[in-house]
């Protein structure tokens, strides 16, 4: 197991509802241009987390995995768009670049599932969330920020989680 740095945060969710609540708290913090990268095997809870993020961000759109369409777009009443990319079916960073990640980020927050598949196409700053299946309802989440903005997001998220205990 790797040694985590001072900016890394680990949390074990004890239910899908708790995973969604973490997502809601994170979604409340996000702004246009923010990039959230999710890594985890099938069943790790990535889409459940994204459902919470989208709800907390302010959309009432149904959130589903964009595995076959590649990108889902969620809208808020203020016309800002959140984009949700599933990189599972992409074979290279070059394929991701064809999707114009810069444009997706310019439209609002961008969440990428299976982000490790297109790592070379990503900006250098993001919030990386590694999700692991632990048990039927338990998921282990490791949050790793890259860049000042993402350390601020993680600090705010941790504070909101601590206040709720």
Q: What is the helix content? A: 25-40%
Strand order of the largest sheet: 1-7-6-2-5-4-3
Unreliable residue runs: none
Q: Supply the CATH architecture.
A: 3-Layer(aba) Sandwich
Report the total helices: 5
Distance between the termini: 27 Å
Query: What is the total number of structural domains?
Result: 1
The shape, in one word, is: globular
* CATH class designation: Alpha Beta
Structural class: alpha/beta
What order do the helices and strands follow? EHEHEEHHEEEH
CATH homolog superfamily:
P-loop containing nucleotide triphosphate hydrolases
What characterizes the major β-sheet?
7 strands, mixed
Cα-based radius of gyration, to the nearest Å: 15 Å
Named CATH topology = Rossmann fold
In short:
The protein is α/β, with parallel strands linked by helices and 165 residues long. The chain has helices at 16-29, 46-57, 93-98, 101-107, 148-163, and strands at residues 9-13, 35-39, 71-75, 81-86, 110-113, 126-133, 139-146. The protein has a single domain, classed as P-loop containing nucleotide triphosphate hydrolases (Rossmann fold, 3-Layer(aba) Sandwich).
Can you walk through the features of this model?
With about 160 residues, the chain is an alpha/beta fold. The chain has a single domain, classed as P-loop containing nucleotide triphosphate hydrolases (Rossmann fold), CATH 3.40.50.300. Helices cover about 35% and strands about 25% of the residues. The protein has five helices and seven strands, in the order βαβαββααβββα. It has a seven-stranded mixed sheet with strand order 1-7-6-2-5-4-3. Helix 1 packs across helix 2 (about 45-55) and helix 1 (about 15-30) crosses helix 5 (about 150-165). The longest helix is centred in the last third of the chain and has 16 residues, at about 150-165. The radius of gyration is 15 Å and the shape is globular.
